[in-house]
Design brief:
Alpha-Beta Plaits, Rossmann fold, six-stranded parallel β-sheet, 24% strand, alpha/beta, 446 residues
Length: 446
């Protein structure tokens, strides 16, 4: 498999390391001669000193015959242009890394579709979503990257005073776009039927759209969720993504920014966030702002060492949950030694997402659930799948399984029994363990 990468920054370099180690043929296009020489001495890859936005350079790099082209420079516009040109030249799959929300969000214009690019990835957004999931609820399952976080899935213990107790699922007035995927009772898990009666202390795996999830949750757990206080250090784009991901009445967010102009800008953009122009690592600020009483502290400036030290300091001073972001993945192993609860690397997140795109038809496991007795699968429906055009009520899934969500283009929904499976849909399947081969045969058509 031939991969061409434009840009040898943090993401491009790490991607080249991972893919070359996997035995793939990797070519990197980069303008810096010093950077290329260092790469040639360390990695078994081909390098080309050229402007990745120029068609002759892309042709020289072998783009017309490559399996994937990844534009990973630090400039969004160059990435969009070079990926678009690469697609026109014949690259099978083109991926562009973008930083700015205007390019990644498809609310005004789908830039990927406009420029003919197969996938846009935003490491800052993906990392912020992962951090938000870890803060939102420990019972939250790792499906946040499905459809850019439009779907939520949590394991919820049914309260004694819940409306659902004693009710069969068919009679529960669940909001449209939510459903129960799995019920665990007395340590035994099963896919529920319409006649399944919910009992107190059941653990239900609830899946639904982010906008209606809280309404559905209260059917099984009516108690109000305690508001969590989160302190975020750093006014980077990732900090903005995180604040937006935590935009909910269950979170009180304070964003600490040292630059005066940036603080004023973010105060206008993020009306639901309290922006504080100060450094939370200064003892006086830490004390005056009561950060020690915060439920979580997240350090995500552009300085890895500062993030690690700040998170470690916050944890040692009483913060319940401390998170540090490090651009260099070599620092990830340090977090446990200094008392940090979680550490995230945006470039690792980006590389993971790109590796998934290398084989878009394969089934992958997003999460294990209910004491590892069931898995959450993601699979793209292939053109040769016998499931295409089939109503879900007639779809014979392997074992006890259920379709939790369907992503079609940019739109995602929790389907009903009368919905159909279509080519290129991405289906979220909840079922028993070890179903990869059977799901691949049924849905991917391989």
């Amino acid at each position: 498999m031939n991969i061409v990468i434009a840009g040898a920054g943090a993401v491009g370099r790490h991607l080249a390391e991972v893919l070359a180690a996997s035995g793939l043929n990797v070519t990197i296009i980069e303008m810096s001669l010093e950077t290329l020489r260092a790469l040639e001495n360390e990695l078994d890859i081909r390098t080309l000193r050229a402007n990745c936005a120029h068609a002759p350079a892309l042709i020289q790099a072998g783009v017309p015959n490559c399996d994937m082209f990844v534009a990973a420079t630090d400039i969004d516009e160059i990435n969009l242009l070079s990926a678009s040109v690469a697609k026109k030249l014949g690259a099978k799959r083109c991926v562009a890394r973008v930083h700015h929300r205007a390019y990644f969000s498809s609310s005004a214009l789908d830039y990927g579709q406009q420029f003919g690019i197969d996938n846009l990835i935003c490491p800052e957004h993906a990392t912020a979503v992962e951090i938000a999931r870890s803060l939102r609820n420990p019972g939250s399952l790792a499906v946040e990257d499905f459809a850019r976080g439009q779907i939520v899935m949590q394991e919820i213990v049914v309260a004694e005073n819940a409306k659902a107790v004693g009710q069969p699922l068919a009679e529960l007035k669940m909001p449209q776009g939510a459903r129960i995927a799995v019920v665990t009772r007395d340590h035994k898990s099963f896919i529920p039927l319409a006649g399944t009666v919910i009992s107190k202390d059941d653990v239900v795996s609830l899946i639904g759209g982010r906008d209606i999830f809280e309404t559905a949750r209260r059917i099984f757990q009516p108690e109000k969720i305690k508001r969590k206080h989160v302190a975020v250090m750093g006014g980077s784009s990732m900090g903005v993504w995180l604040c937006r991901a935590l935009r909910h009445r269950h979170f009180a967010v304070r964003l600490f920014v040292t630059d005066h102009d940036r603080a004023e800008e973010l105060a206008e953009k993020l009306e639901h966030v309290t922006v504080v122009r100060a450094d939370p690592t200064e003892p006086a600020v830490f004390t005056d702002e009561g950060i020690a009483d915060a439920d979580a502290f997240v350090a995500l400036t552009d300085d890895d060492e500062h993030n690690i030290l700040a998170a470690a300091q916050a944890k040692s001073m009483g913060v319940k949950f401390a998170v540090a972001v490090t651009q260099r993945s070599t620092y990830l192993h340090l977090h446990r030694h200094v008392g940090i609860d979680r550490a995230f690397s945006p470039r690792q997140v980006a590389v993971k997402n790109i590796q998934i795109l290398l084989d878009p038809g394969s089934v992958r496991v997003l999460a294990s659930m209910v004491e590892a007795s069931a898995d959450v699968y993601e699979v793209r429906v292939g053109p040769r799948s016998k499931a295409v055009g089939t109503c879900l009520r007639d779809l014979k899934l392997p074992g006890p399984s259920v379709v939790g969500a369907i992503l079609r283009g940019e739109k995602v929904r929790v389907p009903g029994a009368d919905d159909t499976i279509e080519e290129n849909d991405v289906a979220l399947i909840i079922g028993g363990k070890g179903l990869e081969k059977e799901l691949t045969k049924l849905l991917a058509g391989k």
